[in-house]
Amino acid sequence: MxxxxxxxxxxxxKTSWQFFVLLLVFxxxxxxxxxWSEEIPTQSKVILSDVYTIDRKYPSMRGPYGVQEVQLxxxxxxxxxxxxxxYRAVMVGPDGxxxxxxxxxxxxNLDIDMERHRxxxxxxxxxxxxxxxxxxxQFDITFPAGFGLPIFSDEVFSLNTQVLNHNIxxxxxxVRHKIAIDYVRAADLKTPLKPLFMAAATGLVLLxxxxxxxxxxxxxxxxxxxxDHGPGCLIGLGATQHTYTDAFGRxxxxxxxxxxxxxxxxxxxxxxxxxxxxxxxxxxxxxxHPFAESLELRDLTTGKTVFQSKVRxxxxxxxxxxxxxxxxxxxLSVYKGHEYELVSTYNNTTDVDQDSMAVMFLYLLDKxxxxxxxxxxxxxxx
Length: 382
Known about the structure:
By secondary structure, the protein is mostly beta strands. The protein has 5 helices and 24 strands. It starts with 15 loop residues before the first helix and ends in an 11-residue tail after the last helix.
């Protein structure tokens, strides 16, 4: 399958004005959210995937897919600081404009070269390379006013798009993904946005190995305490060959099989989230497969629910019509020293096995960038 890419020019050394922009954005930004009054001059980068032919049923993660390289700035233009404020994806016809059924959406993933990103922003924390995932039930993410992901215009994204078809046989369709990345130029703002970063909580099942306390296991936890860490994830069957091996040689997967009936799976998510400090979460999205009923993040330390997303399935068909998300300028508090659990509930109402995933994407206030004084990195300004 043909892959489309935008040519990436080698990164150029940042000029003093670019570092000065960083200084203005991050030094002294208040930690407490405040009402946002400035009108944000938003721009959008629109990307079309290749045209995918759907001529049979394709389960989740099994349909045609493609990968493209994308950057927000024009190739060869000076690098500048941008704020990504939203991400949208929709299925369209081959012309890129005509309507297509959204039931063909498997996912749209946007990843970044995280090592370069960490270097550019002098991060100490380790986070996922994933910036966004959209799938059936949610086709757009828009951060609360005044918040955004800081990105340099010459950073390169990897865009992965894939289609599926759960319901239709005997027909052929041609569709493509239409993606829009919404952003603002830092130079166009009078007041800098509040920086976000993404941390994910991922549901897992155990494929091989044994937990220290019975059948269930905890990824990268050798001697769990059920009171602190919850019951642990289920033993399961993988829906694909992709696996994770923890430090104790046990194999897990985040894409597993749900047998007919209801399944509740609990995964200790603390290790995956890797919270670097106490902070607040201002947007939460989820990725689930058909037959999901809900996805919940629980704070095991306090015994309280952080957020639960409920799912509405597609009537009289296999699919997801809507998933709940969270968006708030005030945010929800999360803590580095707490233990967190992800609880997924599926109800397979068919008489055959179905595949499943469960991921919660948390967009967190980046206190590391807010507290960092970048003055020591600046070359002379005059």
